[in-house]
Amino acid sequence: MKLMYVVWGEGVGERLRGEELRKELASAGVSVLQVNVRDADVAAAQVRHSTYESPVDAVVSVWTDGEHEAVTAALRSVADDVNGWIVEERSPIEPPEIADGVRMDALANIAILRIPEELTREEWLHRWHDLHTPVAIETQATFGYVQSTVKEAITPGNRTDALVEELFPMAAMTSAHAFYDAGDDDAELQRRVTRMMESVVSFGAHLNLDLVPTSRYRYTLS
């Protein structure tokens, strides 16, 4: 079972990556912990959005054979607030593996998506998974792409229907050409931006969106 949480708290990134929390999560049945934290390494990122009163400080993913209540309690012990969900994962581009606790050399963008009122869940998933995903891959410099669709909320909080992680070169923080893998070609950049934005609008991902630039860390706990 995969669980995902958005987390708030000053300095929470260090606590989420701490040995004490990892031990507690391991004892609760967690096999893998991933921490995506909004930190100084991604402070220069030019694109970000928030629907929450305070921007999300971190996004936590765990893979567990245990109960979600124990994981939620452990995260609440180190954070000011958490919102969590049981999710179903698919990876159109599998992220590269790196050593435990090492920051991936990437801008890891986390997008939090909600289904527009005018679309059914089935139509939204079709437009997102089947129609938009190939466009996103073709028009961006993405080298890791993980889509997590919400199955069930496990805490109170804003409605969320999916969380997406996309990995980009660090240069993409400040360069649209790097983000869209357009080289130095302004015309190609405009073509890619236009195609991508039209696709995003087709399933409503331009509205009611959170976009959190993060640094990515991963730990094997068992």
Low-confidence stretches: none
Helices and strands, in N-to-C order? EHHEEHEEHEEHHE
| Helix-strand makeup class | alpha+beta
- The helix tally amounts to 6
Shape: globular
Residues in helix, %: 25-40%
The number of domains is: 1
CATH topology-level fold name: Alpha-Beta Plaits
Could you tell me the strand content as a percent range? 25-35%
Distance between the termini: 15 Å
Q: Determine the mean pLDDT.
A: 97
The main pleated sheet reads as: 8 strands, antiparallel, barrel
Q: What radius of gyration results from the CA coordinates?
A: 17 Å
Strand order of the largest sheet: 1-3-2-8-5-7-6-4
CATH architecture: 2-Layer Sandwich
The CATH class turns out to be Alpha Beta
The count of β-strands is: 8
What does this structure look like?
This protein has 222 residues and is α+β, with helices and mostly antiparallel strands. The protein has one domain: 2-Layer Sandwich (Alpha-Beta Plaits). The chain is 28% helix and 32% strand. It has 6 helices and 8 strands. Strands 1-3-2-8-5-7-6-4 form an 8-stranded antiparallel β-barrel. A hairpin with an 8-residue loop joins strand 6 and strand 7. Helix 4 runs antiparallel to helix 6. The two termini are 15 Å apart. The mean pLDDT is 97.
Brief rundown of the structure:
With 222 residues, the protein is of the alpha+beta class. Helices cover 28% and strands 32% of the residues.
What are its keywords?
222 residues, alpha+beta, eight-stranded antiparallel barrel
